[in-house]
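Posting this for the archive.
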Amino acid sequence: MNLITGNDLKTGAVTWWTGDGWSTLIEDAVDAGDDAEAIATREEAARRVNVPYVVEAAPGPDGTPRPSHIKERVRALGPTVRPDLTLKPDDPQAIEQVI
C-alpha cells in the first residue's frame, strides 16, 4: 500500500492524500498504488501541498492505514512528548498503532 503524505501550505499540518484532496486524518488516506509518485509530483506542482512523498503502509487491525516506518506513524498521530500537543484520535488505544 502506497500512501502520500506532505504538509499543508498554510498551517504546516501533516496531510494525507485522500484520492481527491488532502486530509489531516490518516483514516482518510487511500492507497495511491503505482501512481503515487506521479500524484505527489502533480500535487506539489499545483501547489496544493508542501513536499509530498510516498510512504509504505499496511492496513492496521481496524483497516486504518498503518505506515510501515515509525517516523510516519508518529507524524500521523502527532508529537509524542506532550499529550496536549497531540491529535486526539477517536481510539484511546491509538498509541498501540505507533509502536
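The helical segments are 36-45, 70-77, 95-98. Residues 2 and 56 are 5 Å apart (CA to CA).
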